């Protein structure tokens, strides 16, 4: 992942997700042009579709301006976006994100929040484990709060924040 571009990562993920025939064509992306290894004019429709889908995936995660950037040169936040792009390429019914904001700078968090918000607005189901409560309250329809391995409550963000048990657990008072 680190040594290939954002676009190439997305294409690889698309190919892994797509059921394709036993074509021996190797696909190369050169700028915005799709070329097969034999440099023939005959490009299978599936290759064209994968290239278009990979561009769409990069647009959805706000990386369409960095398709030729080697993944290793991306910022930490951009790498997180690329990871989400790779997940999207598999067309999951539910996307599981484990602390997607971990290690991100305060400047990078809003951009990734916008990406996740866009996914849910497009109908993508997302299950997220996250410790940044401002992010959770901003994105979640339902929140599950755990304390010492036990489930305390599952409710709306407002109800969770008003819950006395949650307040006691996270304000340091004994339960």
Write structural notes for this entry:
It is elongated and about 50 Å long. Strands 1-2 form a two-stranded antiparallel sheet. A two-stranded parallel sheet has the order 3-4. The chain has 175 residues and is an alpha+beta fold. The protein contains 7 helices and 6 strands, in the order αββααβαβαββαα. The N and C termini lie far apart (46 Å). The protein has a single domain, classed as P-loop containing nucleotide triphosphate hydrolases (Rossmann fold), CATH 3.40.50.300. Helix 1 (6-17) packs parallel to helix 3 (76-89), helix 2 crosses helix 3 (76-89) and helix 3 (76-89) runs parallel beside helix 4.
Characteristics of this structure?
single chain, 175 residues, alpha+beta, Rossmann fold, two-stranded parallel ribbon, 7 helices
Tertiary shape: elongated
Largest sheet: 2 strands, antiparallel
The helix-strand sequence is HEEHHEHEHEEHH
Give the second-level CATH assignment, the architecture.
3-Layer(aba) Sandwich
Short description:
This protein is an alpha+beta fold and 175 residues long. The chain has helices at residues 6-17, 45-60, 76-89, 109-121, 133-139, 157-162, 164-170; strands spanning 27-30, 33-36, 94-98, 125-129, 143-147, 150-155. Strand 1 and strand 2 (33-36) form a beta hairpin.
Helix and strand arrangement:
Layout: H1 6-17, E1 27-30, E2 33-36, H2 45-60, H3 76-89, E3 94-98, H4 109-121, E4 125-129, H5 133-139, E5 143-147, E6 150-155, H6 157-162, H7 164-170
Helix pairs in contact: 1-2, 1-3, 2-3, 3-4
